[in-house]
Amino acid sequence: MRNFLNNRPSENLTKIYSRLYKIYGPQRWWPGRSRFEIIIGAILTQNTAWTNVEKAIKNLRFHSCLSSPAKLHSIHADKLSVLIRPAGYHNVKAKRLKNFTGFLLKSYGGKLAKLAEIDTAVLRNELLEINGIGPETCDSILLYAFNRPVFVVDAYTKRIFSRHGLFSEDSSYEYVQNIFTRNLPSDVVIFNEYHALIVKLAKEHCKKSPKCETCPLKGLKIVAKTVS
DNA sequence: GACCAGGCACATC
DNA sequence: GATGTGCATGGT
Length: 228
Known about the structure:
- The protein is mostly helical.
- The chain has helices at 2-6, 13-24, 35-44, 50-62, 69-74, 77-83, 90-108, 112-115, 120-128, 135-145, 155-163, 173-183, 188-205; strands spanning 10-11, 221-222.
- Helix 2 crosses helix 13 (188-205), helix 6 (77-83) packs across helix 7 (90-108) and helix 9 packs across helix 10 (135-145).
- The two termini are 22 Å apart.
């Protein structure tokens, strides 16, 4: 594997970004009408196609559940579950949504503006303590709802970059995140677009069964400073 | 009908 | 700490 990759042309992560941006253009994530809606979307999209999440969000909007965190929290879990059914895992996700709104109401008076004042590392730890918010959802919220320079790692990121020799696919979330963080400028716009571009690339070319004949990254060895 | 999708928590070893 | 499993709908 290593010898094979060594014969390929190599690019660093910044060049890969430029390459993808040039091909696909700005993705303008996150698709949400408000900070609150972005957070709800981040939870609903866990292991779920965005098209299904859109249906769930549409239901929530129609029933005025997104007008405020307090409003959403007041909805009975069973009713909430029905509304978000198209997004899949609706029973667990209904609890997760209420876990977030419960946290927000109890600790910050239901005001997202207060969360926005918190230091990134502290906020990250607080979000990760909420049952149902793992590292990817947490970092998506930090990046897309609160504009913090945090790189979001998802299954696509691991799949694509492990195929190009950057790390093994079973590397930990933190390890992969560190690779990107240490090899890119700490820039909210770049982190925002990079993650979205990876998703775009994956949807176009990189399903679970590799079929990358037309992939823009075909034949490239990707090099980066490693992390300890 | 099989496979996949912008994960996470929990049980078990 | 690593590994396996349940959670579920909708598109291809």
